[in-house]
Amino acid sequence: MKTLNFITVLLLFFTFSVTLSAQNKGFYENVQKKNISKVLDDLNTFAATADYKNYFDLYAEESTFIGTDATEVWNKKEFMAWAKPFFDKGKAWNFTSLKRSITFSKDGNYAWFDEVLDTQMKICRGSGVLEKIGGKWKIRQYVLSTTVPNEVIDEVVKIKTPIEDALISELKKN
Question: What keywords tag this UniProt record (predicted)?
Fold first, then answer.
């Protein structure tokens, strides 16, 4: 009888431990999602208020920004140089997140996000990767894309064809 009681207690303890562990993981993920959302919201705020230093402090030293134009693939220093004139004018850009999704790597050190943004270009999509570096989430890659409604894609393709055909030709040479 004592063995049966001992086994019952062990099973209850194990079940309680597993349940608590799952709850802690969910709590941890929710906290980390809030932390990442704050980074992304701050990114938008710092651009809107032209806070150059704080904006770029959110990026990892070895990071990449990929813009809406096919030629816009910059490391952090290149992106900083490109963006500086906009920030110097007192307002860089003003994006507001409308919908955001965040997922994590199994070890919890990386997070992927995608979001729908309200911008001066109308709806855009921001997506990217953050890494936990020194206890802080830093942007490793940010991709900004414009969206094109399916109803007007043919018109957009006609407009961009002469520009992008030349770029396609150049890229094929390399």
Answer: Signal
Residue ranges per domain, the chain?
A: 2-173
- Beta-carbon neighbour count of residue 63 at 10 Å? 22
- Distance (Å, rounded) from C-alpha 29 to C-alpha 130? 14
Distance CA 58, CA 56 (A): 5
Measured distance CA(155)–CA(101) in Å, rounded? 30
Model confidence band, residue 10 (pLDDT cutoffs 50, 70, 90): very low
pTM of the complete model = 0.83
- Would you say residue 13 has pLDDT above 90? no
